[in-house]
Each structure stands twice: as structure tokens, then as C-alpha cells.
């Protein structure tokens, strides 16, 4: 094998794993295409010692720390295939190169699939946000929209009412609330607008107005959005591991997938996409991978 471990994805979970494996004197290759899902996010929050830092700055510092360990190598490339071979795994790159390893760690993240509304992609992770624990404090006590519908919208409005009392649910079509939910929302002065949205007006990703099909414009400081999610790179068929009903990679408490020797950590395994949580998962995965290698060699 070329390496003890290949890590596909070099963001927080992957870097955390690489650090632990480097300190365990393992030969590691980290393959990363340099396109994290939070690349538009201006500031990271709820991560001790880094509250308010730019995600790119955190990643840059983390990578510098990892590179202090000579057995860890980085490759700026995109992996497009992975398969099990005798004694381990083979990972292929877009340029035709192949590398082999005894164990494989996937930290490939998730892809956010947004509603097809003009201006939304440009606002995503800046003023079109998804998590009050990541972004809620910065827009507290402001006029906020919720681009979502049904039970999820109701639960999100209930949670956000702690941060914001001026809430408007934007169902972008006919609402799916029950009579009881409508009554509760009205009692909390939460507005529901069913008119179809055609555009988000913004300046450099900072939302100014939402434009509706009827020509009306409403100003919001920010909107919460629930995107659909997909695996950024889906190797489940090639490697034979299972996905959950939520389309995340199914792992056990040791971060191992249902395919023996294939581990996964980070956003690809959970919808709880906090930096602290995915970083910790990378450490757990690395410890368990190292433990498995020790057991095989002892």
C-alpha cells in the first residue's frame, strides 16, 4: 500500500483526523479539491478560540499545524473513484492517478441544493442562513424571513422566536400548516406569506428585499433556508456502504461505515454541521483507524 490511510476531504473533520494520525506516525494522504461548502461564510461561530474567525482562516491554520508532521501529505485534487482491493483500497483521481491505502476515511461533506430562486445562491451562508446556533446571534432582534413550509417551518419558527420576534414564514406557495399550527403562529404574531418568490435583491450577498410574483417587495435582514442535501461525492455504490434515510453516510460509534475498513466523519455523516462536532468526529475516526491498524499489526 502507498499509505496507511487516505483521507478524502481536507476540511475540518479531515484535518482533525490527519493531525491525530500524523501524531501517531501514520503515513497519510489527504486529497482535497479546495471547495468547502462554507466557502462563502464570512464568519464561524460556536467554535471555542475561533468565534468570529473566517472559516478559511481556521482551515489555513489547521493545515499548517498538520503539515508539521512529515508523514502527512496533501494533494490538491478531486477523487472520482474508490474501490476495495486486496489488502485495502484504491482511490482514483480525475487526472488518472491512483493511490492505495490500508484504510480509507471519507470526510467529503454535503452539497446544499437550494431552491431555484434568483439571488439565493449569492446570499447563501451570508444572509440566507440555515442555523440559529451558527448565525442567529448576529441577526437577533431583526426582521427575519423563513423560506420553508409545513412542520419544519413551524418548528423553526418556534425555535427562532427566542432570537427574533419579527418573523415571517415564506412558504413560496400554498402553506402546509395544520389549523392548530396556524392558530399558534397567529398567537405569536408570526406572519405567513404564501405568494411565490421570484428574486432576492442583495448587495454582495447581503439581502435587501425579497421580490414576490405579485410585484410586492418586503425587506428582511436575513432569511433562514432549509436546502435539500446530497453527498458531495457519493462512493456508496463503489464501496458498498449504506446511507441513512437522511442521505448521510451511516456510521457506528467508531465512525466506521457498514463497509469494513471505510470510515467517515464530518458533514457527510450528520446534519448537525457544527465545526466543533465535525472536528471531534475526525479525531474519533482517526483514533479508531489507528487502533484497527495496531490490532492488525501486533
Question: Explain this structure to me?
Answer:
The structure is a single chain. The chain is an alpha/beta fold and 298 residues long. The chain has 8 helices and 17 strands. The strands form 4 sheets. Strands 1, 2, 3, 4, 5, 6 and 17 form a 7-stranded mixed β-sheet that branches. It has a 5-stranded parallel β-sheet with strand order 8-15-9-10-11. A 3-stranded antiparallel β-sheet has the order 12-13-14. Strand 13 and strand 14 (217-219) form a beta hairpin. Helix 1 runs parallel beside helix 2 (55-66) and helix 1 packs parallel to helix 8. The longest helix has 23 residues, at 275-297. The chain is elongated, with a radius of gyration of 22 Å. It starts with a strand and ends with a helix.
Number of strands: 17
Cα gyration radius (Å): 22 Å
Strand and helix order: EHEHEEEEEHEHEHEHEEEEEEHEH
Largest sheet: 7 strands, mixed
- Mean pLDDT value: 95
What's the end-to-end separation, in Å? 18 Å
Low-confidence stretches: none
The total of helices stands at 8
The secondary-structure class comes to: alpha/beta
Shape label:
elongated
Level of helix content? 25-40%
Proportion of β residues?
A: 25-35%
